[in-house]
Amino acid sequence: MLRLDRRLLYNFDWVSVLLLAMLSVMSLASLFSATWNGGPAPSPLFFKQLYFFLFGYALILMILSVDYNNLKLLAYIGYGVVCLLLVYTKLFVETVAGTQRWIDLGFFKLQPSEPAKLVLVLVLASCYARNETPENGYQLRDLLRPAALTALPFLLIVIQPDLGTALMLAFIFISMTLFAQLRWSTLATLGITGLITTVLGWKYGLKPYQRRRIETFLNPEGDPMNHGYQINQSKIAVGSGQLFGQGFMEGSQGHLNFLPERHTDFAFSVWCEELGFVGAFFFLLCFFCLLLWGMNTAVAARDKFGVFLAFGLVVLIFWQAVINLFMIMGMLPVVGIPLPLFSYGGSSLLTTLTAIGILMNIRMRRHQKR
């Protein structure tokens, strides 16, 4: 239970609450427009996302009721559960559109790869916080444990196949490891290894449709099979918004069904088309202020675990946002990464709200003694 400690109430993170509230309203407004079918009521998808938001807010309150240091033990329990769910997904879940990603719980379809990203942040933060950083930085042998912790869920997600989410785990590992401080020799070795792995992965590891996505990204207009349709329509939607947009619920690309996946991967394209540069800028301003506030939380954290945890959570949200935004502008291939807090999807939304709840927890307790 949350103790009504004056210090906790005094240090309550109202900045995150305000930013989260504004982002939530914009997200739901965009989803309302993207999924509206002309009827008198919002679509069922709108109500489902609204319920996910409400459940996520309740989850944040639960997270705030306990000290975040208790997550050190829960992290490894959660890691084991997520890995088992990923194995279950591969063995027993029906294939949909060539992938095995969702476990149907009846009232909710769980995508285990989403909480896997959050759990990886927790275990890496625990791992790096437990050990003193070597004087000149980590050597390769010091990275065996965190690398192994990353490799298992990475491989389980790759075989679903879901390369985009698997790469997110790699980005999290790389970012947190660089933050932990590496020796220059270690950094050079990892860089060369990464380059070799990329070349071999392109030649032998990627499936034909994954390689085609990258080729389409490099030259979407020259694609004779029209696999670049999504990228082209997204760029048209973003560009047609101009300064002030076409007006709420007036976007032609979204409402005339030219833009695929307009409530998931390309949700922000609809927002740009309808609200223009001004609307896009305001959303991104709120979004990246939330991330900057999260980095400030990492700086102010009372212990090493809190520093690594806050940094990892910000990295988790940041990379997803950057990849999605670059994707809708045609600057990256389509990899199915949602825009946190904005794209439709229960697993992604609850994972992001949980991450924000933990950040608020760290900030609230920054002045408490260990």
Describe this structure as you would to a colleague.
The chain is an all-alpha fold and 370 residues long. It folds into two domains: 11-33 and 43-64 and 227-370, no CATH class; 66-206, no CATH class. Helix content is 67%, strand content 1%. It is built from 14 helices and two strands; from the N terminus they run ααααββαααααααααα. The chain has a two-stranded antiparallel ribbon. Helix 2 runs antiparallel to helix 12 (267-300) and helix 10 crosses helix 12 (267-300). The protein starts with 5 loop residues before the first helix and ends in a 6-residue tail after the last helix.
Short description:
The protein is an all-alpha fold. The protein is 67% helix and 1% strand.
List the helices and strands and how they pair.
Blueprint (H helix, E strand, L loop, with lengths): L5 H5 L3 H22 L8 H21 L6 H22 L10 E2 L4 E2 L2 H18 L13 H15 L4 H18 L3 H22 L2 H11 L10 H12 L11 H4 L11 H34 L3 H25 L17 H19 L6
Antiparallel strand pairs: 1-2
